[in-house]
Each structure stands twice: as structure tokens, then as C-alpha cells.
Amino acid sequence: MRLRPLTERCPKPLLDIGGRPVITYAMDHLLSIGIERFIVNTHYCSDMYLEKFPDRHWRGVPIIFRHEPILLDTAGGLKNIEDLLAEDQTILCYNGDVIADLPMEGLLRLHELRQPEATLVLRSSGPVLNVSLNEREEVCDLRHALNDPGIKSCLFTGIYAVEKSILQHIEAGRVETIVSILIQRIAQRQGAVMGVVIDDGNWQDIGSIEAYERLKTRTDVREV
User: Fold this and answer.
1) In terms of DSSP H, where are the helices of the chain?
2) N or C terminus of the chain with fewer C-beta within 10 Å?
3) Does domain 72-222 have CATH number 3.90.180.10?
4) What global pTM score does this model have?
5) Residue 196 buriedness (CB in 10 A; 0-12 / 13-18 / 19+)
């Protein structure tokens, strides 16, 4: 909705930047840490994904497209791919309208060491600082829902790792955001959600036509 009229006939992740779809920047970022397959949730103009990826691969890595006739949002979308995760435990999630080249090793290291249900990639600065961290690097609040400011307020990048076990807390077919699920888990179990602050590298959210036009003119984006 925010990028109309650009998205009247094209889903936002397939908008062109640097001669290729926005989503391929996320894919390249994930490939840099060894991802072996992609699962892409589709809804609006879903047929265009096969036009852009007719062989269902990107740089030789398979892509599974899972259509949502009713848009299920971020938590519902995860639940909707549960049957595809039989051999997986950890899932790396990446919003389709983000372009970033953050070093991801810190995310993988912290998630493996602490083994929470979810680990969020955060930034120290940005337009919306509504993720609260405590002194143990635990996320203690999201969007001020729990009235716990912690010791640091951060921006959520839309990049995160979750364990498959978190899916048991999501109702199949229900339209629900991952934020609401994470707030529930934070309230129910200390340390369920961790945060890792990564201020190195670039991060851009394509949340407006102005942001999209700025990215289109940046030569360094084409080189990510």
C-alpha cells in the first residue's frame, strides 16, 4: 500500500533496484552465511514470482514458493510453511522489503550459544526504537507492550532467527504478526527472545516511494 502506484501490478519484493528484484539482495545476503534453500511466502500478484524466477532457483539455490490466498502476516506465514520444515530446527527470517549487508556472524553465534526461541537483529539508531534490551541481551519489551524499558532501545531490522518450536504457539490459519507472538513469549518465559545489536554494515527499509527512489540511485546497492 505504501508504495502505490509502483506496486499496483507488482509485489514490493519484486520491484527493480540495480536491474534485479529487491528480494534478490536479501537472498544474496543469506547466501553469504550458507543458506541452502529459500522459502518465499507469496500473496499479491503471486504469478509474478515465477516470471522472475522461472526455474525456481537463485544462483543455483532452490526457492520454494508458498502461496497465501489470505495474507497471514509474519507469524501466520511462518505457521503456513511448517510442513516444509521437517528436517529444520532454526529458520532465518528476512523481510522482503529490506536491503542490508550486515555481518550476520553475531546473530548465528548468539543464537547457537544461548538457544532462545528467537533472536532479533537490531540497530542502535533508526527511525523507530521500540525494542527494549536488558543487561543480559534479552529482549524484554516490544512496542512498549510490557512497560519494560530495559537499558537500551533499538530498531528491529526485520531480520531474525527463530526455532521451529515457536510454531507451536501460532494458530494455523490465523492472521497474526510475529511481534505479537514474541511479546507473548517474552511475558511467559525469561530469555525466550534475545537481541543482537549489529551497527556495522548498511541497512535500508523500503517503506516509502522516497526510500525506494533513493536506493535506485545508489551505486553501492548494485554492488551488494
Assistant:
1) 23-31, 47-52, 73-79, 105-114, 178-188, 209-216, 219-222
2) N
3) no
4) 0.91
5) buried
